[in-house]
Amino acid sequence: MKKTLRTIMMVLIIVSLSACAMEESGDKEPINSSSPSERQSQPDTKNKPDDDFNEKQDSEDQSPDNTQNGDQTSVDENQNQTGEQNNSNPSNQENNDSSGSANAAPKDVVDDHTSVEAVINKQRQLPSGYKPSDLTVPEVPFYFEQFLPKKQMREEAASHLENLFSAASKQGLDLVAASGYRSYERQKQIYQSNVEAYGEERANQFSAQPGHSEHQTGLAMDVTVAQVSFKLVQEFGNTDEGDWLANHAHNYGFIIRYPKGKEDITGYNYEPWHLRYVGKEAATEIYNHKQTLEEYFGLVPEE
To answer: Residue 80: inside a domain, yes or no?
Structure first.
């Protein structure tokens, strides 16, 4: 009898100890029970970078994709802008010194820099620290929602851009704004980044040195469309929107600032997306005579 009782007690003790062991191991289960490989594949949303650096950016943020025969595709402030122009690398190509005669002349500070007809290029720069006093955000669609400085333009230009977008919309066209005002410091960052990525000679074909960018005037706006994934690329010129702009922008005071075939004069590659406000009279004259801003004002660089 005693032997039977001892056996029963031993069994009860063993069962009790086993239960305790199971409870202990359960406390140590990881909060995330997925396997290491599964956990590694889960996206990290805690350190999400600023949206502005995940979307396309300013044309001068982009890098050229295809520069054969002056036909370069660009990529905007994000996709490579270092390259938005690499595969089209959305942000413009202006910069001081590139290739051709447009880069040889000495640089002058523009006296009439607040004029809507001011010519800013590789030879003519804005005064140090210049920032327009009448910047505002035009009521047009942008490819991003949050406020960024590049949404801004000077009041007169913004008002006419709204009229242009409205007219385009009535034609069933869906233009989207991408990049307007850009500060000296922002341009400096973009230019240096492009030089590091592509070398100075190539960067100068599409990126402006600080103080030489039209975007700093508040009179320029890069535009794009969904058809080219909202990038700033030369293919934009082949879209319905690009074709309409080339033939109607002057009616609203804008010109295509860097037209095809004029690279030696402007100093930059063809940019069908880069609109520059100069006023309706000047824009119409430039359009009718197939000129650049340099030709219109007799400021063609000497060879």
So the answer is: yes
